[in-house]
């Protein structure tokens, strides 16, 4: 689909919540576009102290004196009236929740979303995690016009980004945030110029989803191949973090794993068996040994494995389960 007409004066409402969205909002402002309002999640209690915290987007919007709306119900008549009063003609969505039709159909020039994958692959809530967990070597970002399903609308623009062996979710997140921010601005410029085109998403048989990640998703299965375990840990670091049970001295405690390296080798040890000296620790798995570099024991801070070994006494049968 192609839309061509004279230049448009945009009145943009931006919708987003986490850090990933801040880069796009910053770039829209830096490009000189008129942001008439920002919609973000309500303030919520967070952390051990359960203190009320503002979203990253709200904090940024306050610093730049932008009008902020924080609806708990997107279909609330009062909120919809406030939104209409902004006379918005384009809505930009980055890392927000699913919108009802009454909202995404409201602006004259539509509502587009930035998604951190090369759609149609990895539709869903956690595309950056899953592309690393699945061992991909390339990903990217996509802008698309929102429709009534999740991440299925017509594609406007895409850019690719390599995934390096040393990447984890944190490093890839930051690169995609910056790449996506540029793509959002480019998309706004095309819409403003009246020269924007979009194409329906292709249908593939082997689409990989990016469903929400739960605690059990993060539990390491030591019975699978070394590559799968290493990629799971990369794909969950630094958040929400892979975890396992350390069995030591007859006790079981949870342990988060942030960073590993692979040592491919043949062996006949049982999977999960630990080997260590004063400086390093590795665990036997199918296909070799996984060197543990950064971990966090229950109730402790994140530490290098050398720091852990300085204060931990392991029995000869210590293993991970």
TrEMBL record:
Keywords: Protein biosynthesis, Transferase
Reactions catalysed: L-methionyl-tRNA(fMet) + (6R)-10-formyltetrahydrofolate = N-formyl-L-methionyl-tRNA(fMet) + (6S)-5,6,7,8-tetrahydrofolate + H(+)
Ranges that cross the membrane: none
Domain Formyl transferase C-terminal: 212-312
CDD domains hit by this protein: FMT_core_Met-tRNA-FMT_N, Met_tRNA_FMT_C
Class of enzymatic activity (EC top level): transferase
Recorded GO MF terms: methionyl-tRNA formyltransferase activity
Documented EC number(s): 2.1.2.9
GO CC terms in record: cytosol
Residues where (6S)-5,6,7,8-tetrahydrofolate binds: 117-120
InterPro entries: Fmt (IPR005794), Formyl_trans_C (IPR005793), Formyl_transf_N (IPR002376), Formyl_transf_N_sf (IPR036477), Formyl_transferase-like_C_sf (IPR011034), Met-tRNA-FMT_C (IPR044135), Met-tRNA-FMT_N (IPR041711)
Domain of life, source organism: Bacteria
SUPFAM superfamilies named among the record's database cross-references: FMT C-terminal domain-like (SSF50486), Formyltransferase (SSF53328)
Residue intervals of the Formyl transferase N-terminal domain: 11-186
Function field: Attaches a formyl group to the free amino group of methionyl-tRNA(fMet). The formyl group appears to play a dual role in the initiator identity of N-formylmethionyl-tRNA by promoting its recognition by IF2 and preventing the misappropriation of this tRNA by the elongation apparatus.
Database matches in HAMAP family: Formyl_trans (MF_00182)
Family stated for the protein in its record: Belongs to the Fmt family.
Protein name: Methionyl-tRNA formyltransferase
């Amino acid at each position: 689909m192609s839309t061509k007409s004279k230049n448009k004066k945009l009145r943009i409402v931006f919708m987003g919540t986490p850090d990933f969205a801040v880069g796009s909002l910053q770039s829209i402002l830096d490009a000189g576009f008129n942001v008439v309002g920002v919609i973000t999640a309500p303030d919520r209690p967070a952390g051990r102290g359960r203190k009320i915290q503002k979203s990253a987007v709200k904090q940024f919007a306050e610093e730049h004196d932008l009008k902020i709306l924080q609806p708990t119900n997107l279909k609330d008549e009062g909120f919809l009236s406030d939104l209409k009063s902004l006379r918005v003609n384009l809505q930009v969505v980055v890392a927000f929740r699913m919108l009802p039709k009454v909202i995404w159909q409201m602006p004259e020039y539509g509502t587009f979303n930035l998604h951190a994958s090369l759609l149609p692959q990895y539709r869903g809530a956690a595309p950056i995690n899953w592309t690393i967990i699945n061992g991909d070597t390339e990903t990217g970002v996509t802008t698309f016009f929102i429709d009534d399903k999740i991440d299925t609308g017509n594609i406007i623009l895409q850019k690719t980004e390599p995934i390096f062996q040393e990447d984890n979710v944190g490093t890839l997140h930051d690169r995609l945030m910056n790449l996506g921010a540029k793509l959002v601005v480019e998309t706004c410029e095309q819409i403003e110029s009246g020269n924007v085109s979009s194409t329906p998403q292709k249908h593939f048989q082997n689409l990989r989803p990016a469903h929400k990640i739960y605690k059990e998703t993060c539990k390491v299965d030591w019975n699978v191949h070394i590559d799968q375990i290493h990629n799971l840990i990369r794909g969950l670091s630094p958040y929400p973090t892979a975890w396992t049970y350390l069995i030591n001295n007859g006790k079981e405690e949870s342990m988060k794993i942030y960073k590993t390296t692979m040592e491919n080798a043949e062996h006949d040890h049982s999977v999960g068996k630990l080997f260590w000296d004063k400086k390093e620790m590795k665990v036997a798995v199918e296909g070799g040994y996984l060197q543990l570099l950064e971990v966090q024991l229950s109730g402790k801070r994140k530490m290098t494995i050398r720091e852990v070994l300085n204060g931990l006494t392991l029995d000869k049968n210590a293993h991970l389960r």
